[in-house]
Each structure stands twice: as structure tokens, then as C-alpha cells.
Design goal:
56% strand
């Protein structure tokens, strides 16, 4: 009889613990993870740790407030078998939409994005990075690893549609370009190879940069005959050398 009572008490205790864990509110979890109120803000959090929603999420970086809108998530139970803590998420705001898998690596305090689709109005990047560009960025991240201070590794592709740049005097249309983004492990830099898809220019550039600054540009740009004359003038000013109608960056 005593053994039976002991099993009942243990069973009740386990039931209570499981209920506490299952019903752990999402608001408490979010407050523990997003510990920098000066950089991350939101209006409300609903749901539980395993499935919930953050409303009107905003991230402040480089003095610019990035509106991420509403973020939904649900725990990816399959990640348990791989020894990971992952969620399937979707995010929507007027200028940024994304969805994919997000994992947290506790031992190194890194966030990892897997198989993530993202669409960004280039205006957001223009404000964030201090450049004058327009268009839509439609990307797919096969993998991206982010630390609190920098992008550690990335592998993805971005189609820049309705691309436009401003040369200081006027907007120049480049139509559609493709960016392939990878990490150079040896130099600890991110490299973006930019090629033309449907554009008034022939382009093959590799732009290397760190989290804080652009390091180098290598490759060439060759305007087609129908291109705006002001683009040729801009390329002539910024390029290192010219061969025929091709401008080289080294």
C-alpha cells in the first residue's frame, strides 16, 4: 500500500511538472531571450513557449529602427532527435517578410537560420546601410549563423528585382541582378557575387565585406549600348581601369 501511494505521489508530481512546463507562457520566455530592451521592443506576446506570437516587433541597429511586424513560431519537435532547439517561424511587416527554421546554439550563443525565405524592400537596406538603392530583394538562405556581434557564416541567393541605384544625380535602372552570398572562412569575410540576369549591363562582381564595412570589390561591369549615359560616366569615375566598354574593379 505504501509503495502504491508513493507511485501515485510521483505520478502526480510528474503531471504537475509537465503541466507547468507545457503551459509556460511565451511572454516569460521572450523576456529571457530578448534581454536588450534598448535594441529590441514589442507591443505584446501571446501563446506558450512551444507556440506563440510576438506583435509589432522592432529591432534597433546602427541607430535605425527596423520594423519586423508580427512573428509567429511553433516548436520543431523533430529537432529534439538532433540535439537542437529549433522553431519554425514566419514574420510579416510591410517591407519585410520571412519564414523558415531558427535554431539556438546555447554553447556558443549563436542563432542559426536554415532554409529561410526572405523578401525585403531595398528601401529598408538603404536606410540601414546608408546607400541609395531601390527594388525588391527576394532571397533564400540555405544557412546563416549569427552571433550577437556579427554574421559568422552565410550561404544564400538573392534576386534583386526592379533594381535601381542613385549616382548622386539621378536614379539608374538595372532591372534584375542575382547575388550569391557565401562566407570566406580563411579571411572571415562575407562575399557577395553579383551577376546580371535581365539587365542593361553585363556584370560579374565580387563584393567582400565584414559586419562593419565593405572591404573590396573585384570584377567588371560592361554597359550595353542602350544604357543611360550617366551610368558610363559613374563607372568611369569609380573603376580602376577600362578596356573598351568594360570597366574593371580591382
Amino acid at each position: 500500500m505504501i509503495k502504491l501511494n508513493r507511485f501515485i505521489y510521483i505520478g502526480l508530481l510528474l503531471l504537475i511538472l509537465s503541466l507547468i512546463i507545457t503551459l509556460l507562457p511565451a511572454s516569460w520566455v521572450v523576456k529571457q531571450l530578448l534581454v536588450s530592451p534598448s535594441k529590441v521592443q514589442w507591443s505584446s506576446v501571446s501563446g506558450y513557449w512551444w507556440q506563440g506570437k510576438i506583435s509589432q516587433l522592432q529591432l534597433t541597429t546602427r541607430g535605425y529602427r527596423l520594423a519586423l511586424g508580427d512573428v509567429h513560431w511553433r516548436y520543431d519537435w523533430r529537432s529534439i532527435s538532433e540535439g537542437k532547439a529549433c522553431v519554425i517561424f514566419s514574420q510579416y511587416s510591410t517591407n519585410i517578410q520571412s519564414d523558415g527554421q531558427l535554431c539556438y546554439e546555447h554553447d556558443v550563443n549563436h542563432i542559426v537560420f536554415n532554409k529561410t525565405s526572405i523578401n525585403v524592400n531595398a528601401h529598408e537596406l538603404a536606410q540601414l546601410m546608408g546607400v541609395e538603392v531601390r527594388g525588391d530583394l527576394d532571397g533564400y538562405l540555405h544557412y546563416a549563423q549569427v552571433s550577437p556581434a556579427a554574421i559568422v557564416a552565410v550561404d544564400g541567393d538573392v534576386a534583386w528585382q526592379y533594381a535601381e541605384i542613385h549616382n548622386g544625380e539621378k536614379w539608374i535602372g538595372l532591372q534584375e541582378l542575382l547575388l550569391t552570398i557565401t562566407t570566406d572562412v580563411d579571411s572571415n569575410r562575407i562575399e557577395a557575387r553579383i551577376v546580371d540576369i535581365d539587365s542593361p549591363i553585363i556584370m560579374d562582381l565580387v563584393v567582400a565585406f565584414t559586419t562593419n564595412k565593405m572591404e573590396s570589390i573585384r570584377g567588371y561591369i560592361e554597359p550595353r549600348s542602350s544604357v543611360d549615359a550617366s551610368l558610363s560616366q559613374t563607372l568611369e569615375f569609380f573603376s580602376q581601369r577600362q578596356s573598351g566598354n568594360r570597366y574593371f574593379f580591382e
